[in-house]
Here is the input.
Amino acid sequence: MSHARALLFRSLTAALLLTLPTFAATPSPQPNPLAAAGQCVPPAAPGVPQVGPLHPLPSGVAGQVAFYAAIYTAEGQQTAEMRLGDVDRVYPLASAFKTTVVHQVLQDVDAGRLRLDQMLETTAANRSIEAYPPGRNSVLKLIKLAIGESDNTASDILHLQVTPSRLTANVRALSPCTSVLMTTKGLWSLMAGLVPQVVSGATPAAFSRSVQVFGNLTPTERLKAAGVVNQQAQRFTAPTLLKALDRYFLGSLYQASNDAALYNTSTARAYADLTARLLRGTGDLRPATQTLYRQVMTTGCCTRSKTPLPFTPTYWGAKAGSGWGLLTMSGYMELPDGRNLAYMYINHDSPVRDSELIERQIYPVNTWILNQVNQLRLGAP
Here is the structure.
């Protein structure tokens, strides 16, 4: 462990002991597969044919694009794939990670730790930025808001309820290339410099060095650091956070190269596969709960397409996310012939910076994705 990393780890541990309860068992120390080169290649698997070529991307799409789609038998055996860009590079997930939050919530419902009719309160501490559900709301309503409206506060209330550390461990067990460490309020507080004991720096170079130290921590160290972030983020009101976040993105500290260490992350290949596993069913939800999960995911962006579908799936669950120069779109479909497919689109470091502006690309990109997966459907064995 480097001197800088050792100092950060000791300070984080001290802060953690002062501010947080003891964590449940965490993964044993090991090299961080998501650090350094920014690649996370899954274990070797038998080769499957690639289908192509791909259609041109919609007008206005620029920056780094990774797209992965795969088609499977009804039993989950992959038979063909489609790739664009570096599908094994680690990228930010934006709000696409909320798919995993809701899945964990429903696991807790099955385990008796939560009830769908249980009322949870929105407070100044758990309120995230943008629109939010005031007062007390049921777990079921918050689940629907987190997916159907991509509501950050609803997602964070649920995320804190199931505990971020447990979600991190469970996601990693299913998808080693996927890292879900922080609530939305947590990751934005970290970016905005509001948690200086984890990431800080007054100049772009100093900030990037601090981000690199955090990104290169082992999984156990990052989990403890993320615990500090998620706890400290609850000290800030949403308006305070939003102002600090605007200063970050519009100021000199923001660099797209830091995003992979600050967001919840995955690769296009890994997240497509994880989405397929969760919506096909991994056997860890009861039948009725799995049915509810699948139904809620049909309300995610962008299953209500404004353009005619090139084919008619018997099921389609999806979730998108957006951010500063960032757009992600994930989904899973089942076909009338019994096969199923999954996809993940990531556009990072787009010159279209503002999230509201990049969201205008959602429907053109969604149409492009539908054409791609249709070509995959037709060309797969």
The first strand starts at residue 64 and ends at 72. Strands lie at 64-72, 78-84, 91-92, 119-121, 136-138, 265-266, 315-323, 326-334, 340-348. The longest helix spans residues 362-379.
